[in-house]
Amino acid sequence: MRYSAWNIFKQGLTGNKGWTRAWRDATPKADYDIVIVGGGGHGLATAYYLAKEFGLTNVAVVEKGWLGSGNIGRNTTIIRSNYLLEGNQPFYELSLKLWEGLEQDFNYNAMVSQRGILNLIHSDPQRDAFVRRGNAMQLSGADAEILDRDRLKKMCPFLDFENARFPVQGAIWQPRGGTVRHDAVAWGYARGADARGVDIIQNCEVTGFVMDGGACKGVETTRGTIRAEKVAVCVAGSSGRVMDMAGMRLPIESHVLQAFVSEGLKPVIPGVITFGAGHFYVSQSDKGGLVFGGDIDGYNSYAQRGNLPVVEDVCEGGMAIMPMIGRARLLRMWGGLMDMSMDGSPFIDKTHISGLYFNGGWCYGGFKATPASGFCYAHLLATDRPHETAAQYRLDRFRRGVPIDEKGQGAQPNLH
Amino acid sequence: MIIPHPLLGPRDAAEFVYKGDATLIDRPDGLTASDDEMHDYAYLRDNPAGRHRELWYHEQGDRSWLVVTRDTRTHEILKVELARDVARAAGRAR
Fold first, then answer.
1. In A322-412, where does DSSP find H-type helix?
2. Is the Cβ–Cβ distance between A216 and A206 less than 8 Å?
């Protein structure tokens, strides 16, 4: 069923009895062309673009829990394309372009809200670095603007401009950045993939890979064996656990990232704001809660919950740029699992095992990448060639000496 | 998390810096190791869900390095050793 104003009107007049399920509750078939492991945002987007762009519909998505039960429902919903390096920025700009047309494309209200993202500047060298970044962004076709103090003051009068330690000197602004209703992204992609014939199989945990003559020919699951020509793993956060079943070690550690929501407030934060001298970012949800976060806890974790020192650190970051935040009460906090890679950048690649593909290592930036990750993974699965914007997301890049290290931290995953 | 330091007793984990998988103690000899060995040592991790042996550096304390065995699913700390004892036992230090 197509969602439209006309349909809302018609259903309203007929007692809302005509609405149908958004996707079928599929039972697994014995074999498929492609099985996608992981029914999160990236896996569902992959299925959607495989069906829509490449006409491949004999596809199943298997999900251990319920659809969207992982990081797609645990992130802070920010979208942006403000990277520096060549291996990253064109990919994230493709993602932002896909976000811009997403709701019309999959006929679902994902509440894509391009309210802009501000990265604050606190020193002269930082301004130089952000000017360089802005130029890199513009080279990829993205938008970027350096705001001076006066323009920023008009936009965000509540910032602590005169902070003794980190005075605010301005910001780099990407007006096309913003936020998206994250659960709706999973639902929209699931509905779009399902309508084109993809089977979405929930409560179906992968317990092993079917290996045949050194090639991967399917997955063992709690709902039986599912054979497939190609198996596409897409389980960021749990990549280590899943790929271990194929005997693979990865350049990834799993870490926990916490996120926070305050009580509902009147509109106060115009877009997304990030602190330039510490790690803190904040936006305001449509319900009024301030949604914010900061650093990962910094130690390997599969616990989906963090500890208090990071809570303190994040709140201190908030207090440093907008002291008014201290008057709001913290309502909720939670943790999600991150694939922290050795250079802070992701992987979309074939593995050395024939028939087995890998998408992961999204660190804590996977949500904004959802459309492009799905698009490029679908491209790789359908054509066996990487999409041009994801050509550097290779598993062997450390061996070849070409990491994509935005922060220049080296092989220390908890610092990216 | 509270880390029971073998010399100092229970200490807040915030005093420590996390330095990753304890297998990093077993660095191959850079002069004789193959490219693959060095790559695997520097970049690949087991990343288990469950028992994990890892290095914690007591930066805001006595600056000792510890090998902490911890459950990554619950954050429960199962065992704490001085890294130098672990390295000595493995024949890596005097």
1. 370-383
2. no
- Within a 13 Å sphere around the CA of A25, how many CA atoms are in the beta-carbon half? 4
pLDDT tens-digit map of A39-56: 999 999 999 999 999 999
- Written as six digits, the tokens of A288 are 């009024």
pLDDT in tens, A195-242: 999 999 999 999 999 999 999 999 999 999 999 999 999 999 999 999
- For residue A252, what are the CA distances in angstroms to A88, A171, A359, B94? 18, 32, 12, 32
Query: Hey, are the CB atoms on A250 and B39 less than 8 Å from each other?
Result: no
Q: What is the pTM of this model?
A: 0.96
Q: Over 90: is that where the pLDDT of A1 sits?
A: no
Chain B residues lying within 8 Å of A247, measured CB to CB: none
Q: List the structure tokens of A13.
A: 């007049």
Report chain A's mean pLDDT, rounded to a whole number. Answer: 96
Name every residue in B having a CB less than 8 A away from some CB of A.
1, 12-14, 18, 20-21, 35-36, 39-40, 42-49, 52, 54, 70, 72-75
Interacting residues of A285 by C-beta distance below 8 A, sequence separation 6+: A77, A179, A261, A291
Instruction: Please check the confidence at residue B94 and state whether its pLDDT lies above 90.
Output: no
ipTM score assigned to the predicted complex: 0.96
A356-360 and A224-233 beta bridge pairing? parallel
Contacts of B32 (CB under 8 A, 6+ apart): none
Report the distance separating Cα A400 and Cα A352, nearest Å: 15
How much of chain A, in percent, has pLDDT values that exceed 90? 100
Residue (of A288, A294, A292, A331) closest to A309 by Cα position: A294
Give residue A343's pLDDT. Answer: 97
| A293-323 residues labelled b (16+ CB within 10 A) or e (exposed) | bbbbbbbbbbbbebbebbbebbbebbebbbe
- Coil vs helix vs strand at A398: coil
Among residues A24, A23, A13, A49, which one has the least CA distance to residue A34?
A49
Domains defined for chain B, CATH in brackets: 2-89 (3.30.2270.10)
In chain A, what residues touch B15 (CB-CB under 8 Å)?
Answer: none
CA-wise closest residue to B85 among B15, B1, B11, B22: B22
